[in-house]
Amino acid sequence: MTRIAILGAGPYGAFAAKKLSSVPGLDVTLISKKNYIHMVPAVPRNFVTQNLDGYSRTLEDIFGNSIRLIYDEVVSFDDKKATTRKNGDVAFDVLIVATGSILNREFQLPDTIDSAVEYFKEEFEKVKRAKNITVIGGGISGCELVGELAYKFKDEIAKGEKSIRLIHSSSNLLSHFEIDSVRMSIKSQLEGMNVKLYLGKQATQDGDKIYVGSEEIPSDHTIWTTGVKPATPDSPLEGLKNEKGEIKVKSTFQTLASPNIFAVGDCVDFVIKTAFPLKKWGSVLTDNVVAYVQNKPLTKQIVPPTNDDKPTCGVSLGPEQGAGQIATPFGTFKAPTFLVVQSKSKTMLKGKLSQF
Questions:
Q1: Which part of the chain is the FAD/NAD(P)-binding domain (predicted)?
Q2: Does an H or E element contain 95, and which?
Q3: Nearest by Cα to 267 from 289, 235, 297, 298
Q4: What is the CB-side half-sphere exposure of residue 350 using CA atoms within 13 A?
Q5: Is residue 165 within 8 Å of residue 135, measured between CB atoms?
Q6: How far apart are CA 284 and CA 138, in angstroms?
Q7: Can you name the CATH fold of 130-227+311-355?
Q8: pLDDT (tens digit, 9 = 90+) per residue, 190-245?
Q9: Close Cβ partners of 334 (under 8 Å, ≥ 6 residues apart)
Q10: Domain 2-106+229-272+277-293 adopts which CATH fold?
């Protein structure tokens, strides 16, 4: 039996474990700090719904006894073993690193599904009690969170009982990977939802006080949606990571440092940190792992994103609004609003984990 170890039970790690578990001759071990998989893009919605039904699944529910599950944190790995905090070394023949990214404190979820439910209940009580809510960071996560809060508390905002502010260091919301018409649409919609925008401004925090320049912003609850970085364990392997700590991979998802180590997701050195087509990229990864095990050429490849790409994406602003774009061979174009609402805003990807 060929031993396959997978680090991380996010969408890519879970997809790889599920697909490889059905391949004869492979012994699959999945190592995860969490005992569940969560639809991370839905976190802004979870802040106000407090309901994880359709957004989370336990790993035991997904895998049963088809693979070996280890609930632990990997502190380091080389080309032969992964070292966990509590369970010691886990030897492997092939390793898949799918550890994702370290999110800001409000988006970093607890390790058990029961704790996650309690966490969102506590977070909702905080935003419910707060009169002045400030979100710092106007990327997709920040905009979507503000949109959810503005929709949920629209009556209180209209009465002047609650205010929501969004501070973003760039003069435009989102990033350069979104086309201008989408960025302007999101700005216009948030303003229409009575969100106070501070664009091109740097936020600082001094204790409980928030400042934009020298101006103090009234805030009794502040949420940061900035500071994401790759969650890659330590490793002595030379040339494995770049200066940002991201794992350097080929278009086959094989690492440059060692042929028996593959990596995928937010922990790799791709310039765009977003959800790519899971089945397409996951299939490329697993097909190449099987080819490697069978001593065959790795023929499946993806086209790594570049700084010039404008990928297909949608930005939800509550269940009834949003904006997005569709990438085509002829360019990237703004998507019809109804399409964004139906494909993302309405359900925030609820039920998508049923594919595992």
A1: 3-274
A2: strand 94-97
A3: 235
A4: 14
A5: yes
A6: 32
A7: FAD/NAD(P)-binding domain (3.50.50)
A8: 999 999 999 999 999 998 899 998 999 999 999 999 878 899 999 999 999 999 99
A9: 179, 181, 182, 185, 323, 324, 325, 326
A10: FAD/NAD(P)-binding domain (3.50.50)
